[in-house]
Automatic annotation (TrEMBL):
Belongs to the PhyH family. PHYHD1 subfamily. It holds the Pfam family PhyH. Keywords: Iron, Metal-binding. This is Uncharacterized protein. PANTHER family: PHYTANOYL-COA DIOXYGENASE DOMAIN CONTAINING 1, PHYTANOYL-COA DIOXYGENASE DOMAIN-CONTAINING PROTEIN 1. GO terms for molecular function: metal ion binding. InterPro entries: Phytyl_CoA_dOase-like. Its cofactor is Fe cation.
Amino acid sequence: MSFFYFPEMGDSDLKRKFFSDGFLVIEDFFNDEEVTELKKAGLELTQNALSESKKTVFNTINLEQNKETYFLESSDKISYFFEEGALGENGELLVDVSKSLNKVAHALHWLHPIFRQATFHPKVKQLSSEIGLVEPRVVQSMYIYKNPGLGSEVISHQDATYLYTEPQQIYGFWFPLEDATIENGCLWFIPGSHKSGVHRRYIRNPDKSSNELLINDKPTPHYPASAFRAVPVKKGACVLIHGQVVHRSEHNRSDKSRHAYTFHIHDAHQSQWSPDNWLQIDNEFPLLYAN
């Protein structure tokens, strides 16, 4: 299969823009057929959520997942994480299962054929090469639902907080499968914020006696609201995200969902994966990018 060349990424001005801003939007990355196939696969995953005996809530504010081995051990599995407002006190569903999930994660890129195909798409490989990755490794993947009314806020953060390498070599590939608008929770960025280092780390708790399995090493940084820029994008685009750029998304208060598929890559040739990261991969489950 031949590579697809990105003339716009070959343009020095666009490359400079990415490394200057910390993010870049590439329109029409996936075609309508590919987007439809990915979204259909994401909707089919919701039907498997009913069989989950453990219903774990994922929330970037309350951080209930900090105490969950289900979250900690999800790196080599397809795991299901629910919205807080979708579950009752006893774990019963309060909404239709198709609207109940926050995300399905973290090994879709290896264990699901549709998401594997998208992750290892020739365009992704070429784009990885264009930004200078020598030995790219996919470390985790997520299908994010952001359902109407329930889709929760994602707080201001850097991806390198959660996926840390030394030196920093983390890049996110984010694909909206529906138009991402200000109303339904598009991404917001602080342009240039990736130049200020990694502000805090989310790590495995060194205190093995604590019921908090994961902790932050520093308090939550304050980022002024005025510094953020909204980045609405059409379905099928690729939003390339530098691991240190500060970004967030707001609660979906609209009547439309905002499905997206995303994964992260680090360069194994130029950086070392931190043993403190929450996400650790068993040696039998490779991080290496498929050829």
